[in-house]
Amino acid sequence: MSLPLKIAWRYLVSKKGHQAVNIISIVAVCGVVVATAALICVLSVFNGFRGLIMGKLAMLDPQVAITATMGKTVNDADSVIDAVSAIDGVERAIPVIEDQALAMYVQLQMPVRLKGVPDDYNTMNQMDSVIVDGEWKLRDQVSKYAVAGAGPAVRLCVRPEFLGMVRLYAPQRKGRVNIANPMGAFRQDSVFISGIFQLQQNSYDADLIYVPLDMARQLFDYETEATQIEVKLTPGASEQQVMRAISQALGSGYQVKNRLMQQREAYSLVNIEKWMAFLLLAFILVIATFNVISTLSLLIIEKDESIATLRALGANDRQISRIFVLQGWLITLAGAVTGVVIGLILCLCQQQFGWLRLSGDPANMIISAYPVEVQWMDVVITLALVAAVGLLTSMVTALIMRRRLRN
């Protein structure tokens, strides 16, 4: 340990001559501690909410989705599926058709999103775990069925045990419209409701209804087309490697997206909120470090006799300045390390005990306590920020010290 660092450490831990300097030193360290701990906790809470949202969406989103770069549909979906299925790491690839339609039940009606899928689509995702009434069934020997989101079920007043059928209407994509017979411009079909799902995410629950794939093709007048190819990977397969292989096999006419890319808007929104909170707390941290500058200014005044003694012993102005610059670093780093430790302890306690509760009726919420997920990159970024602020503090301290020594 160098002599300036030893003296700076001594000045940090020793009792000051004036009680006010001791109090200001404690306040300076506590300010950095609180700001750093707040950064760790707030960033971890945003990580928890992001993980919660992405975990919910991942229950129904495919691991990999393939869409056409130009146009709405993938032409000759079967040939695309054959090419994708031959790639190592792909367990299964299926076509789906999704489009807008009108649903009617008795006198009630609403616009919905129909998603035509294979009958065993529930094996591609975790659909069975989000069904809150009935079961997953799209077909039996008698009739065709649909699985509706909570939104359509409530607005249309339907349930799985009801005997009435939901009528579905979709505008014809081909041919001319006969003004004298407006209903002739629509294709229609009817289904029973076999199940109701609720993901507690508005993008799915509000208007989505799953129907058999052949029924969707008939309604929307598709033959071999699909609006999307959904891919399930084999356990342990590398998502990035499989996506690269699919892109190379299909060429530039197709977009290959993982779950994060499919939900880019939701993911970006949470990230923006997270880093806006980070900037606000970083500004508070910068303000807190002004206390460090005040502490060092008072300490420089208090140590006039010690500075004179060091000069008499042969220390030059650069060495004396370095003592107080290092002390500024020590105060900032001590506060940062302590704040990180306290922040991590608070996050761990929240994970284990859920002390901070969300307001509202627990029966209507996904979770009752704030979710927390610590990411070490956030810890590194926080420490880097504190180090940068400490550098700024040291530069100001060096300027004050030089002026003091010249006088």
Put the structure in a nutshell.
This protein is an alpha+beta fold.
List the helices and strands and how they pair.
Layout: H1 3-13, H2 19-57, E1 64-68, H3 77-85, E2 90-105, E3 108-117, H4 127-130, E4 131-134, E5 145-149, H5 150-156, E6 166-171, E7 186-197, H6 202-205, E8 208-212, H7 213-220, E9 228-233, H8 239-250, E10 254-258, H9 259-262, H10 264-302, H11 304-312, H12 317-353, H13 376-406
Helix pairs in contact: 1-12, 2-10, 2-12, 2-13, 10-12, 10-13, 12-13
Spell out the key features of this protein.
53% helix, six-stranded mixed barrel, 407 residues, 13 helices, alpha+beta
**Which structural class fits the helix and strand makeup?**
alpha+beta
Number of helices: 13
Percent strand equals 15-25%
Radius of gyration: 32 Å
N- to C-terminal distance: 30 Å
The percent of residues in helical segments reads 40-55%
Rounded mean pLDDT score: 85
List segments where confidence is low: pLDDT < 50 over at least 5 consecutive residues. Answer: none
- Strand segment count: 10
Q: Globular, elongated, flat, extended or rod-shaped: what is the shape? A: elongated
Q: What can be said about the biggest beta sheet?
A: 6 strands, mixed, barrel
Query: Taking strands numbered 1, 2, ... along the chain, how are they ordered across the largest sheet?
Result: 2-3-8-5-7-6
How are helices and strands ordered from N to C? HHEHEEHEEHEEHEHEHEHHHHH
